[in-house]
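I am still getting used to backbone structure tokens and would like to learn alongside you. To get us started, please write out a protein record for me. Once you have written the record down, we can walk along the chain together.
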Amino acid sequence: MKFDALIVGGGPGGAVAALALARAGWSVALVERSRFPRQKVCGEFVSATNLPLLRQLGVADTFSELAGPEVSHVGLYAGETVLISAMPQPQSLPGADAAAWGRALGRDQLDTLLLMRAAAAGATVYQPWSATDLGRNEDGFYCRIAARELQETQELQAPVMIAAHGSWESGPLPTQVEKMPLRPGDLFGFKARFRESHLPRGTMPLLVFPGGYGGMVHTDGGRVSLSCCIRHDRLDELRQAHAGVSAGETVLEHIKNSCRGAREALAGSKLDGQILSVGPIRPGIRRAYRDGIFVVGNAAAEAHPVIAEGISMAMQSGWLLCKLLTARRQEVLSGTALDEIGRAYSVAWRKHFAPRIHSAACFAHLAMRPVTANAMLPLLKLFPHMLTIGARWSGKARQIVLPTPLLDAA
């Protein structure tokens, strides 16, 4: 089976790339190993800087119908401290939504929406199929895929290969991570959803607690999503002190005992579904182009979730790559411009996303160190607007997707 582009991974980055290329007239194959809808450990927040992209891809109206309320304020819940400040709005660009705010949508809804639209636009979706082998020949890339349930295998061929498989799982592809022994400072992620929460509507607070950090936000279906990260050594201490209690329940109680704001927001609330977990999470910048393979989303880099920009960077990196590919389609498909575009994409990626990665690392290390976190609280109490400035530094006001029909031209 021959295609113009082959994408491994059907999350926001891969689905946006598939949808954009398919709408531009490319033949696209997307391989996703999981069935949708699926739950993911994720903050679920989609910043307002993505609204022009969602509109360009034809999913803005559906997103607005499904997503939770607009998030107009950021906050900080640390110990007994509860602070609230305004969310920065996107910079003013032609066609940008100057009065709009970001919103949260569960990954079960968002991932399904984007992948269904990619299929409707003409992308061939292999799901649930897994990539088992990848290589290059005179025609470009070949990828062997397998459907375990069907006991079937196929080989796909394309001159353009895009890795959008995330960063948490190891695998056979050269862009996937290698398994490493656990370290005390490794982070493990947890996510839970609640009904009947008292979290103020339109507010997304940062939770700071010993050994970790997290966030809360109103998402779809009237639910509140709580996602967090905690150090491996702190998690081990908590589990030893609470033998017989699940890791998720232990972490949740730790947060409520440590954060007055979280405790009050969740008082009387009801857990909706199971507490999910994943790890270890190892944030950092990898390579946006490697051995002829373009990389988007968390596979290219993973920010500390403290800034709630993971979905935004995944979708925007997919758009950024496709903008470069579609501008030189004939050269790309003939295999004569891959390295040149790879260098251009890497430069553009670092320009737009590296500052967010570095800001996230700074904020996360401040939050996870009790000495520095406690030292910052008196200053933040005097100047809560610093929360707005921090949100701006994290990329929530930087518009990179121009509202132009770049991806609609075949």
About this structure: The first helix runs from residue 12 to 23. Residues 5-178+282-396 form a domain with the FAD/NAD(P)-binding domain fold (CATH 3.50.50.60). Confidence is low (pLDDT under 50) at residues 406-410. The longest strand covers residues 187-195.
